[in-house]
Amino acid sequence: MILAKNITNLPIEAKDGSIGQLKDCLFDDQHWTLRYFVADTGKWLPGRKVLLSPLHFDEPESGIVPIINDRLPVSLTKEQIKNSPPIEDNMPVSRQYEVEFARYYQHNAYWNGPYFWGISHIPQYRATFDTSTEERFESEVAHKERVQEIEKSSLRSINEVIGYKINAQDDEFGHIHDFLIDEDYWRIHYLIVDSKKWLPSQKYLIDIDWIKSFDWANQTATVGLTKKMIQEAPEFDSTLPLEDHYIDRLYDHYGLRPRDLPLSHHASSK
Prior knowledge:
Blueprint: E1 2-3, H1 4-7, E2 11-14, E3 17-28, E4 33-40, E5 49-52, E6 72-73, H2 78-82, H3 95-105, H4 140-152, E7 155-157, H5 158-161, E8 165-167, E9 172-182, E10 187-194, E11 203-207, E12 211-215, E13 220-223, H6 227-231, H7 244-254, E14 268-269
Parallel strand pairs: 2-6, 8-13, 12-14
Antiparallel strand pairs: 1-9, 2-3, 3-4, 3-7, 4-5, 8-9, 9-10, 10-11, 12-13
């Protein structure tokens, strides 16, 4: 598990030199999986931001980001990144753009399959853009339903969602402070909730599957827990490793277990 804030602003190193800094992460609000990293190219390409995929980090087969000397190395050249499809700042990422992005880098599209990363649970690089993936589906109807499900969602900014208010069942409770992300799947597993915004406060973990809904317009997240339940939960310390005994205490407190909800029942967006 890694903290989203711990990778923001890290320098990104291409095969042949630095390209800038990681400034944001975009996740889809159906499977809560990080799809893209937003890199600010700084002095190298002034005024331009580029997208990178978890597939582009070194050792893409493992899905693990190797932070080396406080830098994020990617398995791309500066020329490849320079010629990648341009994206305008502060504009939504369209499905058409994602298709072009996948074609340019010659990797499989994550929506072409039943798993977090299409044909796999973890990011796996493919040398060619596979336009025949849908042929492996049980039927053409199943493929169309899958794409329609993905298209109902949109990509959300980690930077934007940090700070959203938390609504418990009976009262407002703090705000989203950070995210804990699984490096293997690049899936958000937990929200770190800060009980207060300005005063000294405590922090708590909430499983992403306990979120009933996000209201993007009003910048709130609603959880199926009472304020008292959250206040009495084990406090979370982000400076310490996330250990099994803490996770056991957390789920025991709520009387819930990890992954109680099936994938199709994950939190929906308004």
